[in-house]
Amino acid sequence: MANLRDIRRRIKSVKSTAQITKAMELVAAAKMKKAQDQALAGRSYADKLNTVLVNLKENTDEESHPLLAKREGKKELMLVISTGRGLCGGLNANLFKKVLADSGEETDFTTSGKKLRQSLAKVGKNIVSDWEVADPVPFNDAKPIAKYLTDQFLSGEYDKISVAFNDFVSTLTQTPNVTQLLPIEAAGLAEKQDYEGVGKDEIGETDHEAAGADYEFEPSPEGVLDKLLPLYINFQVYQMLVEARASEHSARMVAMKAATDNAKGMIKDLTLEYNKARQAAITAELLEITTAMKAME
Question: In 28, 216, 271, 276, which residue has its Cα 20 to 30 A from 287's Cα atom?
């Protein structure tokens, strides 16, 4: 009977775990929907902002703005956007491998999310700052991060600023991505980014016509560019944070669903094992009673 008690305890324990993982799955699904809505809400804005910047680029010298100027140095600052909690499958591990592969010896790191901050610290990487971002991601949380990265670049402290994050493709697919933020690559302004949700192809025919239109800029193309580029950087950082958050919740939802399904399978196997053990115990008791009755005859 001790064996039956152990099996009952295991079944009870696994059922409790399944309830927890199911609850976490539902919470992650709700949060993922909010993050997806945030990403969708900004895609049209990103498209039009890119179109305006393409037109400005064609009316100004690409090297006329310090945020567009390329540098010869190799010192890099990388913003790594990871999760604050675990239980999201291989999401952080895959991004960590990508970060190590794409970073150099002269790369310093600033982080958002403690998981990769801890991983980078363990391998001896230099972490210069860390950022806390609320959930769902407010635009105001992205602005100080973007300003910090911009200031570090303009001060000459770093020659390149990049961002590592998980690009949300679908509920089942999240791709680790390292993207150069500064200096802004003028050629890349005409390309729609995956994390803006509009594919990798260049802007469409209609947008090309808009980009090539004869606009008049007031006070000047350079003045408008000076105002738009910081806004562009702010939005890029915000969109990356949103994509990373959508990836986190979708990966956690999938992982918790798999855990719940595995728990249900384990409960089924344990129940079968329990019934077999119980049947064997009953059969043994019946044999003992029958044997005792025959002995008394």
Answer: 271
Query: Which domain range does residue 58 map to?
Result: 42-252
For residue range 190-227, list pLDDT tens digits in order.
555 555 443 333 334 444 444 455 667 777 777 777 88
CA distance 70 to 223: 20
Structural domain includes residue 35: no
Residues 208 and 292 both lie in one domain: no
d(CA 66, CA 31): 38
Q: Is residue 88 part of a domain?
A: yes
Query: Which of 234, 244, 241 has its CA nearest to residue 45?
Result: 234
Indicate whether 192 and 75 sit together in one domain: yes
pTM tops 0.85:
no
Residues 103 and 226 in one domain: yes
**For 96-100, 127-131, 229-233, which range has the lowest pLDDT when averaged over its residues?**
229-233
262 assigned to active site:
no
